[in-house]
């Protein structure tokens, strides 16, 4: 079985070759050092969610295209399973539950976060709309200058192609994110 880092390495290399850019050019576009990208493509290192997002934007593909394993016809993701990435600057994890299939543009994530530093997300691909449903705890989500306070069962959507934040207000806050890409 391929490790998550090996899967990311393969996907980044595949997408970089598909669009025909050099390692140096992709590193520049993603705001990474060439050495970091070279290590990632070699399957070493442990890229954070910010690094993978930067690469997905630079490559013009949804985040899930870089982290999702091939999916069978019927797929079950049990609690505690799924490909999980951690934020570099906040106590925040994102677990990919379902990646968009060809010709569909929505990815589903389960988020777990703890109070502390907010998770600031850079803009995703143009036309992205982010949907958030809090399932446990309390959080703030949305534009950095006016995040919305949410409790269990609350829903908010906002442009994902602009900077946005997610901040847990209580321990073990959980949410479902749907990234809709047009």
UniProtKB/TrEMBL annotation:
<protein>
    <submittedName>
        <fullName>XRE family transcriptional regulator</fullName>
    </submittedName>
</protein>
<dbReference type="InterPro" id="IPR010982">
    <property type="entry name" value="Lambda_DNA-bd_dom_sf"/>
</dbReference>
<dbReference type="InterPro" id="IPR014710">
    <property type="entry name" value="RmlC-like_jellyroll"/>
</dbReference>
<dbReference type="InterPro" id="IPR001387">
    <property type="entry name" value="Cro/C1-type_HTH"/>
</dbReference>
<dbReference type="Pfam" id="PF01381">
    <property type="entry name" value="HTH_3"/>
</dbReference>
<dbReference type="InterPro" id="IPR011051">
    <property type="entry name" value="RmlC_Cupin_sf"/>
</dbReference>
<dbReference type="GO" id="GO:0005829">
    <property type="term" value="C:cytosol"/>
</dbReference>
<feature type="domain" description="HTH cro/C1-type">
    <location>
        <begin position="12"/>
        <end position="66"/>
    </location>
</feature>
<dbReference type="InterPro" id="IPR050807">
    <property type="entry name" value="TransReg_Diox_bact_type"/>
</dbReference>
<dbReference type="GO" id="GO:0003677">
    <property type="term" value="F:DNA binding"/>
</dbReference>
<dbReference type="GO" id="GO:0003700">
    <property type="term" value="F:DNA-binding transcription factor activity"/>
</dbReference>
<keyword id="KW-0238">DNA-binding</keyword>
């Amino acid at each position: 079985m391929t490790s998550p880092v090996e899967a990311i390495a393969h996907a980044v290399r595949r997408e970089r070759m598909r669009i025909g850019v050099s390692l140096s050019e992709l590193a520049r576009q993603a705001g990474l050092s060439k050495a970091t990208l070279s290590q990632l493509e070699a399957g070493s290192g442990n890229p954070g969610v910010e690094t993978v997002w930067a690469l997905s934007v630079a490559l013009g593909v949804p985040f899930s295209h870089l982290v999702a394993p091939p999916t069978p016809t019927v797929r079950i993701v049990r609690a505690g399973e799924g490909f999980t990435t951690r934020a570099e600057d906040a106590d925040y994890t994102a677990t990919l539950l379902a990646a968009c299939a060809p010709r569909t543009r929505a990815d589903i994530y389960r988020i777990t976060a703890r109070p502390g530093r907010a998770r600031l997300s850079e803009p995703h691909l143009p036309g992205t709309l982010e949907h958030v449903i809090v399932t446990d705890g309390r959080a703030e989500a949305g534009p950095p200058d006016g995040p919305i306070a949410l409790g269990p069962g609350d829903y908010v959507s906002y442009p994902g192609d602009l900077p946005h934040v997610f901040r847990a207000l209580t321990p073990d806050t959980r949410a479902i994110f749907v990234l809709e890409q047009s």
